[in-house]
Amino acid sequence: MESTLTHLECGRCGATYEADALWNLCPSCGRPLLARYDLERARRLVRPAMLAGRPATLWRYAEVLPVRDPAHRLTLGEGFTPLLRLERLGARLGLRHLYAKDESLNPTASFKARGLCLAVSRAVELGARALAVPSAGNAGSALAAYAARAGVPAHIVLPRDAPATFRLEMEALGARVTLVDGVITDCARIVQAGAEEGRWFDVSTLKEPYRVEGKKTMGYELAGQLGWRLPDVIVYPTGGGTGLVGMWKAFEELEGLGWIEAGQRPRMVSVQSSGCAPIVRAFERGDEEAEPWPNPATVAAGLRVPSAVGDFLMLRALRESGGTAVAVPDDAILAAMRELGATEGLFVAPEAAATVAALRQLIADDFVQPDEHVVLLLTGSGLKYTHLLEASATP
């Protein structure tokens, strides 16, 4: 299981960089760097039939992941989450092939484990000795867990109004947490300043090349779980957008590996809250980048991202796939949390529930047809958000 990583490439200007050094954003244009692989060599090293005998973690795709030394491949059992058929909810919505990929079964109960597993593994392999991230909750929890696993300090900057559950979890995992009056972009400025002072390495969303590599494994897994075919539509809740960008990257790589047929990629749907929807607004305007969203407010903390450095990559994926972007209100998100629980036994985070609310709108708009195969990405557990349901409970 040997990595075929060759170099890094800027997603905006195309500049290339040596892979075996610590990088944040592209020095030329300040945009995200993406890992590139020798896919012809990877194709010779591994075939789909070989995966079945490998451990049921994301490291089964090691040839197209960036960590070279197996000793640095940290694991807490992340990845290989179930793909569940939603028969009752599908019948209610008039869909015959509705599925959900349940990411709440990852360590620290969210898909953030995938990205931080790769980011921490690679950063430590390349010599980082302290790590930091701005977070709305789940990313900080995942960094704390994997930094503890690696034996390096974790510094997390968190909005003061984030649920106390997250702060307590991070501290229990050994992280140092700083609370800030503001939103995640305010936290990001503190992390960036500390990185510039040399206090830590910044593993913010798409501000280093490897979180996206962890998130792309959702795409590899999904293809394998569907017999190396892809669904017609993927509905994905979008804050920083690493998972959306990562899955689109995975599908490109899978075509290069010859594991899926060319031209069969799904239509990608970005879901945001109507209280913070910069990607939806930019998509509807036909813009290539998203303007910052003023005064962001939503119960879905992971969607309260007023601006994202990877905005152009998200918008590119939506348009290349023939997809779309949808904003849904908070009351619909909370209702969807209850509906998904009552119909399918899945208690999910509000960000995940937003996909159900969006799906109703997609059906009403005829974007999704009854016979199409649709996958919802359920990004996290509802257990850290019980306060939302208590606050919205009917007396």
Keywords:
395 residues; alpha/beta; Rossmann fold; 6-stranded mixed β-sheet; 4-stranded parallel β-sheet; 39% helix; 16% strand
Q: What's this model, at a glance?
A:
This protein has 395 residues and is α/β, with parallel strands linked by helices. The chain has helices at residues 39-45, 48-51, 87-93, 112-125, 138-150, 164-172, 184-196, 211-225, 242-257, 278-285, 311-320, 330-344, 350-364, 386-392; strands at 5-10, 16-17, 33-37, 83-85, 97-102, 131-134, 154-159, 176-180, 201-202, 233-237, 267-273, 324-328, 373-378. It is globular and about 50 Å long.
Description:
This protein starts with a strand and ends with a helix. 56% of the residues are buried. The model has no long low-confidence stretch (mean pLDDT 96). α9 links the parallel β10 (233-237) and β11. It has a domain at 83-110 and 210-392: Rossmann fold (3-Layer(aba) Sandwich). It has helices at 39-45, 48-51, 87-93, 112-125, 138-150, 164-172, 184-196, 211-225, 242-257, 278-285, 311-320, 330-344, 350-364, 386-392, and strands at residues 5-10, 16-17, 33-37, 83-85, 97-102, 131-134, 154-159, 176-180, 201-202, 233-237, 267-273, 324-328, 373-378. It contains 14 helices and 13 strands. The strands form three sheets. A six-stranded mixed sheet has the order 4-5-13-10-11-12, with helices on both faces. The longest helix is centred in the middle third of the chain and has 16 residues, at 242-257. It has 395 residues and is α/β, with parallel strands linked by helices.
